Amino acid sequence: MAISLKATSRSATGKGPARQARAAGKIPGVLYGPGEEPVVLELAVPDFLKVYHGGHGENVLMDLTVDAMEPRKVLFREVQRDPVTEQVLHVDFYHVSLTKKIRVHVPVHLEGVPDGVKNSGGILQHIMREVEVECLPGDIPENIVMDVSELGIHDAIHVSDLPTAKFELVDDMARTVASVIPPVVSKEPTAEEEAEAALGEEGAEPERIGDSDEKEGDAKADAKGDDKSKGESKS
């Protein structure tokens, strides 16, 4: 089933018209492709969210109709969001040819519980959340699923281990996608170490309040005595 979106072209560009579009419940955007003049447009928020959050992923291929133009096969190229409110601020659509390969980033999903986690208390690290692939627009996978249930402690999955279908992996094949690391073990002190620590605390003489003042006073008295002796000897 083809996924479709409808948009309306805009003649005014810039921050002001874009803010006006958002205030009216629209999302400003642009459509462009190789050798084509960009088309500035806007579309309704519910229509966008229905497709974007419809479980198809960001690499969904859709038919975009702008005004009375013929539908064009497009992909989301960039979706700009407000960093605080998460409101969608702008959308870039990329017009693709169904006969030319393109490069896109595809999510990597890990499936199963690693043996090293289940039986040895290890920790699964998911390092690469997506990889870059090259394929025809109609062959873009929604995600790449990798079974990690056989991984033991110190085992890892690399890009070269990922399954492929009608696409080619173009990331560095040696990069680590996921690994299982040993559990973090906190060292408990031995009975001997605890005894030494307790002995050290008992053997330390507590400092009494006033000791430092008394010592300082004694030092000053000694200094005065020395000065007096020196004066008597001079006379």
Describe this structure in words.
It is a single chain. This protein is of the alpha+beta class. The chain has two domains: 3-96, Ribosomal Protein L25, Chain P; 103-181, RNA Polymerase Alpha Subunit, Chain A, domain 2, CATH 2.170.120. The protein contains five helices and 13 strands. It has helices at residues 15-23, 45-52, 115-118, 191-203, 211-234, and strands spanning 3-9, 26-32, 39-44, 62-66, 72-81, 88-95, 102-111, 123-126, 130-135, 144-147, 156-158, 168-169, 176-181. A six-stranded mixed β-barrel has the order 1-3-2-6-5-4. The protein has a four-stranded mixed β-sheet with strand order 10-7-9-12, with no helix packed on it. A three-stranded antiparallel β-sheet has the order 8-13-11, with no helix packed on it. A hairpin with a 6-residue loop joins strand 5 (72-81) and strand 6 (88-95). The N and C termini lie far apart (118 Å). The mean pLDDT is 85.
Keywords:
235 residues, alpha+beta, RNA Polymerase Alpha Subunit, Chain A, domain 2, 4-stranded mixed β-sheet, elongated
Could you say what the CATH architecture of the largest domain is? Beta Barrel
Number of strands: 13
Chain-averaged pLDDT: 85
- Give the termini separation: 118 Å
Low-confidence stretches: none
Please identify the structural class as seen in this structure: alpha+beta
What coarse outline follows from CA principal-axis ratios?
A: elongated
- Estimated radius of gyration: 35 Å
Q: What share of the residues does DSSP label as strand, in percent?
A: 25-35%
> The biggest beta sheet, please?
6 strands, mixed, barrel
Number of helices: 5
Secondary-structure element series: EHEEHEEEEHEEEEEEHH
Helix content: 10-25%
**Name of the CATH homologous superfamily of the largest domain:** Ribosomal Protein L25, Chain P
- Total domain modules: 2
